[in-house]
Please model this.
Amino acid sequence: MHPAATALWRDVQRIRSKAPLVHNITNYVVMNFTANALLAAGASPVMAHAVDEVEDMVGIASALVINIGTLSQPWVESMHVALRAAKRRGIPIVLDPVGSGATRYRTETVQSLLLAASPTVIRGNASEIRSLVHAERATRGVDSAHDTEDALDAARTLARQHGCVVSVSGAVDMIVSADEVIRVSNGAPIMPKITGMGCAASALTGAFTAVNDSPLQAAAHAMALNGIAGEMAAEQSRGPGTFHGAFIDSLYLIDEGDIERRLRVNEA
Amino acid sequence: MHPAATALWRDVQRIRSKAPLVHNITNYVVMNFTANALLAAGASPVMAHAVDEVEDMVGIASALVINIGTLSQPWVESMHVALRAAKRRGIPIVLDPVGSGATRYRTETVQSLLLAASPTVIRGNASEIRSLVHAERATRGVDSAHDTEDALDAARTLARQHGCVVSVSGAVDMIVSADEVIRVSNGAPIMPKITGMGCAASALTGAFTAVNDSPLQAAAHAMALNGIAGEMAAEQSRGPGTFHGAFIDSLYLIDEGDIERRLRVNEA
Amino acid sequence: MHPAATALWRDVQRIRSKAPLVHNITNYVVMNFTANALLAAGASPVMAHAVDEVEDMVGIASALVINIGTLSQPWVESMHVALRAAKRRGIPIVLDPVGSGATRYRTETVQSLLLAASPTVIRGNASEIRSLVHAERATRGVDSAHDTEDALDAARTLARQHGCVVSVSGAVDMIVSADEVIRVSNGAPIMPKITGMGCAASALTGAFTAVNDSPLQAAAHAMALNGIAGEMAAEQSRGPGTFHGAFIDSLYLIDEGDIERRLRVNEA
Model:
């Protein structure tokens, strides 16, 4: 078995056996899908956003995932409190800047969150990642108007500024640290037609950072698992509606053989 | 091909090719389903409700859909800001008065929203539409206690007051302007057993108004697409649970032949 | 037919024929699933949380279900108002203390809700129920770290304190009043892998309390229906994703024969 496949399968098994508690402060649209994706992958999800409890919840969590998909002021305040608590405890933090660039509020909120605490991994699409470095306006809402390669420079800049990993999702996912790049080519063309696939990838990234000390490898494993489960689901469904259930099934059923046959990392 | 079918198919293709950005301020229950329905139909959904960003989001959107299904004060304020911004930009507005009549708060909120900006299309069930004209109390929560025909007079009154189209959903959908009525008989009996079918119809109405300058035709097309996809889904599912995925699949897979065979408009 | 099966089937038919309006103040993660579960079972769900309308909504509801899964201060205030209104009207109240014990805020909120109005039924997992009596900290977030039997004493204490029924879900569900215990052994091992199964059980408990004056029997019937539908769904699905739709289908399709064949109550 290819070493990359062995490493991914080892982490999948770790998540299944340890069931790390992943604390999500995420958007309304994807909460159900995200929770089910984490459960199917073997993790234990919890959603909590009240300023009165996020610190306590971070206190028992193995990873914190912040997603600004449907942000508003009370949520942003809680995100700040949770970020600081996670930083103090030293647990991994994943930040998903959903729709950054689409409104000034989103772009500025992400900047303020990045100032509060450098995340372990930033995971977004190419337009979102670019918006964090270039002062450009997104015009496609939460969908990307760029290929992942268009975001390579921005991702590297961010990675260096924050000493973090930047995971750019797209047809080819690109996982970027200050000096390394991993490319994952798994996935299916239908995936952008289902809401929350990126958010699920961010949540899974949280689960992997909880069981793997290398943020670069953890982020790449999450994108690979997401992509492989997406391929399996695409083969078992008629369209984006039945894909939804098939994707969750695949996260649950995926085995060593699926990973060995399908994983496509750093293939030119 | 029947002219009505040709016109619907043309609009379906326009949505698929243009992917209009539909900005939804909608309820928690249906956000995921609504986003997936819009994506499957070819549109690009965005959900954003913070008063700090709705004006910016309206600024890049092709249609605004306001749905009061789980309203509260901060959301109502944002709806007002978004409505005014949409009016200034001249983009179409769809208002779904979910549960109007069930509580004074819902009824009064809808009245205040109507005062802020006349929508392009109001889409609701018969009880909701009646509640906007008659001072009657709904007793079935968000479900209708009336047939669509019971709401014809109320719909016409509203259409004249606001210079808008009123789309009344039910076993037969009735799309009403100041002086015209279109009836759409597509759909399946199981559809009221799935939450959010009406909300999806409202969101699709937003997508159609973004590609068709006739609000009457756009609203009728949305109900027809919703109904035809519902028929296809009912044939491919065992109950309301599997209907859910099959409906999204059908929105994605529907083709010219499905429309030609199934469309039932203004048939007595 | 076994008397227990006859009683359950009678209540299922009552829900289907009366379609009781169940008012839910529940969490974001499960709203869609909960609404669809209630609709599939034959009830009429409504979700409303604004302090401006909960009293009106309680005024037309047949049961109130309070679920603290994603609580925050404005929601807690509305829960208090709704609880008092439900108590005044004398409609049944179900309280689901999701994640009680995981944070002080959750534990204290549940205590304050219990002071505001004793519910008809408290439904939670073993860790949640224990947290309401013992001052112990949950470490698994919203998942249980205990077997149901570990919560028997706590459940009985609560039942006596509040003159209510306590329904503890787990591999074997335990429905406890001051002096009785019913055990329901239906269900499938995959159910903890789908988010919101407990929340659906709480909502169904609300529907059953609306048609059956015995809270003990109503709570047991809800757990039995939930468990039987879960068994049926497990047989018709490949994993937790397709289970989701199959479970809703099963709630809708379940018939007298399914109940007779499958019901397992108080079997040692």
Remarks:
- The first strand of chain A starts at residue 21 and ends at 25.
- Chain A has eleven helices and eight strands.
- The mean pLDDT of chain A is 96.
